Amino acid sequence: MTHVVVDPVTRIEGHLRIEAEVDGGQVKDAWSSSTMFRGIELILKGRDPRDAWAFTQRICGVCTTVHAIASIRAVENAIGATPPPNARILRTLINAAQCIQDHVIHFYHLHALDWVDVVSALSADPAKTSSLAQSISDWPLSSTQYFTGVKTRLKDFVDRGQLGPFANAYWGHPAYKLPPEANLMAVAHYLEALDWQREFIKIHAILGGKNPHLQSFLVGGMATPVDPNSQSSLNIGTISNLRALAAKGQDFVKRVYLPDVLAIAGFYKEWAGIGAGVGNYMTYGSYPENDAPNPPMFLPAGIIMKQDIGKVLALDPSRISESVKHAWYDYSGGDDKALHPSQGETLPHYTGPQPPYERLDLAQKYSWLKSPRYGGDAMEVGPLARMLVAYASGQPRVKELVGVALGSLKVGPEALFSTLGRVAARCIETVLLAEKMDGWIDELAANMGSGDYRIQDNAKWDPKSWPKDCFGAGYHEAPRGALGHWVHIKDGIIVNYQCVVPSTWNAGPRDVAGKRGPYEASLLGTPVAKPEQPLEILRTVHSFDPCMACGVHVVDVHKRELAHVRGGP
Amino acid sequence: MSTGEGWLIGELKRRGVSRREFVLFCAGIAGTFALPGSAATKIAAALSKTKKPILVWLEFQDCCGNTESFLRASAPTVGEVILDTLSLDYHETIMAAAGTQAEEALQNVVKTHKGEYLAVVEGSIPTGAGGAYCTIGGKSALSIAREVCGGAAATIAMGTCATYGGLPAAAPNPTGALGVADAVPGVKNLINLSACPANAANMVALIAYYLTFKRWPPVDGVGRPLFAYGQSIHDACERRAHFDAGQYVEAWGDEAHRNGYCLFKMGCKGPVTHQNCPNIRWNEGTNWPIGCGHPCIGCAEPDFWDKMTPFYQHLPNVAGFGVSESIDKVGVWLAAGTAVAFGAHTVGKMVQHRLATREGPDTELPAPPSPPSKQPPKTGGMP
Asked: Residue B273: enclosing H or E segment and its boundaries?
């Protein structure tokens, strides 16, 4: 039995530590720990709820926007504000663009190096690479000359002896299966995707002033004025800029990302049988299709239990609870009872080893993440959960795209419950959203053209118009999954704020009943060829797209006095 | 291994950048820093000869926003090359290695390149719970920051969390979070690139300057380079004429808003915020917050989460003054020439940052902003 510690898990957002017992070339048990804590909810207390989105947005700079959206929805829900149609469509465009860009960055820059051996690319034949590329896509950057250039650039880089971010990795590991030509093609697309993401995300600069951390959100609407004929508003010119960027986005997603995922997956089909995890899936649903109080969603809400895609259950947020049995917090009523976020109390209490430490005490508390549960069950959230619920609910385009992917790999739907299934679902979702962007831009143009310039619910801007004591919940599907914010407002001021976020669902530790969280469960049975180079562990953990800063943030210190530290230590 | 002369020129050629374009870019850098024209030749020569300096990028209590911003760096094309001239030996979000192998990469730099490498810090550094609020590889952020920044030739605090504590340090600062200047007392050659996040264009310019001159450019009273923080948002704002003419947005989406009038009454903190957003904008010059109709929130200033909030309350909130008189006061204050440093006393009076019900020693008016205890020298740190 070998005890493996991976800390830091790199190519993620935030600070994650994985410990695993490996025996006979397989993971026998695993623990997921988050090692960073900030306390943003406590910081929110006593502040103007209209400011909260700017604070919560900084929970994460990778999935920038998502905590802003959840926050304004929670406050709007509490105070009874109704965003006008322009605001709904602008938010949808911003959310979808964020999801598309984030998924592409995840695949190429955070996940690909688990599957792609950069050093192997040095021995690729550019002519064969060209044939390979042209056999899977009509993307124009595919000539022998082009791949010769990429190879030369890579060779020069390696020859200089300063490998920078590629140094000291697991190159040559037996779990890398791609031929050199596929590796070279992937390296070329890694570099192209760097350029692509920078260009595509200008949609956010147009609609939000800047990215990361857009600055056009408002409780009750959006701050971006809309007027087809004004030079200082979103106008006819903006619409055509958005269309051009969306078209370029879709082009890359369909002609590079999708073919790459299918090609690479073809070499790693055994990973369709690895990494299933808890087998329960949850999504709040995303992209409201009209302005009704409970609108239909482009991606439906729902629950799937025990991998049963024959049955989608209705989601009931009152069944959500969080346990701190293995997290560095106390509950005043004891750690054996899980609490709903609306009743949530979070008293940070670090009981782990004092740093520097080698090992955590895994029988006790071992993470800054709590353990969220739905009806007592651990749930996986994220693109796979969304695509499964959409597929099982009969969303036609999702059914089609899932069919294409499964057909191309010659596997059945059961292959979706796996490490590879997460990779594929993320890509399918990206295609789906990239195709839909144009329709949403049309909707914005049509609404603007109808003379509706409203962007915000002005009647609810002044806190005097709010109920004296109110409570709200706001939900959003972030790229990494189901995100919920809960806010309690009294006399126009935040008195309590709670977030339960995707990476808490996925990366949380064991609960009161000792049940593993999704990361922990998904690692069981994962093969590990070389425990000192646990590449396969990274594959499965990265397939969730960890975002730890999102996961850890909850602190609600009613009963604890914390020193307000300023100045030197 | 060929790290000597000519590598950059080769890199440029591969990217289709001519020698002439490169020199023009260097002239642009020279212009940014108001250097004489002859400096362009010197910059070009320095950049061409540079062996790739090692950069280590540390992430502590961060959101990764500065890293994401860094990934958006580009224009001009040569700017990419400037970034390629760095050997990014440690960056958790980007690097291929993980766990032990990642820690080895960092230790290798710290041990074998002591005093040579450049460190970037993203995120604040917690001092509470014995360092347990942020650990990497079992070590506290504080110990890592002191070891790595302590051995660096120079350190860039990237973003407002690393510079001044930022969001985690906002009241009541639950984790005892600090910026680099406070967490690593006496750190050599520190420069602050604040904002939430820092702008990629400023990162590129700052690094190019360092590679050329081996020192930092002149800084303001809170350690930020003057080329990017020397002027208030308000002074360079494209909507300034509307402010001067008394043309204000009064409600979201009103005609004034649609016509790009001044956002002062909607809470804009541009008059007390120093950064070059209006000039360089964001995402390759595409737009900036005021350009899309939202007020500036003052994200480049120390303690902005406390001192600039509530964000939608307009600046002067001094009892006994109406809006128009207060606006005049702000105008007078700006004219008084306090544009370089954050005018601590005046701003303290101008910016009401707490709601009455929040706890704190000063329920009516905030305390003036406290600059970091350790400030880099005004002229930049390096001889």
From this structure: none
* Residue in A286, A503, A522, A543 annotated catalytic: A503
Q: Does B16 score more than 60 pLDDT? A: yes
pLDDT in tens, A348-389: 999 999 999 999 999 999 999 999 999 999 999 999 999 999
CB atoms near residue A270 (< 10 Å): 12
CB A543 within 8 A of CB A10: no
Q: Residue B276 is which amino acid?
A: N
Q: What residue type is assigned to position A517 of the chain?
A: G
The pLDDT of residue B113 is 95
Chain A residues touching residue B126 (CB < 8 angstroms): 37-38
Angle between helices B7-14 and B19-32 (to 10 degrees): 110
Nearest to B63 among A59, A118, A557 (CB): A59
Q: Is A143 left (phi over 0), alpha (psi -120 to 50) or beta?
A: beta
Does residue A60 have an active-site annotation?
yes
Residue B25 domain-assigned? no
> ipTM score here?
0.94
Q: Do A350 and B66 touch (CB under 8 A)?
A: no
| Token representation of residue A419 | 């490490």
Nearest chain B residue to A549 by CA distance is B63
What pLDDT, on a 0 to 100 scale, did the predictor assign at position A322? 95
Sign, CA dihedral A299-A301-A307-A313, equals negative
Task: Identify the active-site residue in A17, A33, A50, A60.
Answer: A60
Q: Decide if A198 touches B, using CB distance below 8 A.
A: yes
Q: What is the largest CA-CA distance in chain B?
A: 71
**Does the annotation mark A173 as catalytic?**
no
If you average pLDDT over residues B154-166, what whole number do you get? 98
Q: Kindly report the CA angle at B263 between B258 and B267, in degrees rounded to 5?
A: 135
Residue A550 annotated to the active site: yes
A 203-262 → B contacts, CB under 8 A: 204-213, 215-218, 220-221, 223-227, 230-233
H-type alpha helices, A65-143: 66-79, 85-105, 126-136
B242 and B381 both lie in a single domain: yes
Domain termination site, one of B216, B239, B257: B216
Residue A161 has pLDDT above 90, yes or no: no
A13 catalytic residue (yes or no): yes
- Give me B149's structure tokens: 């920044």
Instruction: Spell out the domains of chain A, with CATH numbers in brackets.
Output: 39-526+541-551 (1.10.645.10)
DSSP labels for B216-238? PPPB-TTS-BHHHHSSBHHHH-T
Residues B205, B273 share a domain: no
B195 torsion bin: left (phi>0), alpha (psi -120 to 50), beta (else): left
Cis preceding linkage at B218, omega within 30: no
My answer on whether B123 and B257 are in the same domain is no
Q: What residues contact A44, with CB distance under 8 A and at least 6 apart? A: A52, A55, A56, A494, A497
Cβ-contact A426, A103 below 8 angstroms: yes
Domain boundary among B190, B216, B242: B216
CB contacts under 8 A, A 132-191 vs B, are: 149, 152-153, 156, 159-170
Chain A residues whose beta carbon lies within 8 Å of the beta carbon of residue B92:
8, 10-12
Whether residue A427 lies in the annotated active site: no
Note whether B252 contacts A532, CB cutoff 8 Å.
no
Nearest CA distance, A510 vs chain B (angstrom): 20
Per-residue pLDDT, averaged over A503-508, amounts to 96
Contacts of B354 in chain A (CB under 8 A): 46
Q: Which residues contact A438 (CB under 8 A, 6 or more apart)?
A: A243, A246, A247, A250
Report chain B residues whose CB lies below 8 A from the CB of A230: 258-260
- Write the DSSP assignment of A291-323 as a string of letters: SSSS--EEE--EEE-TT-TT-PBPP-GGGEEEE
How far is A301 from chain B, CA to nearest CA, in Å? 28
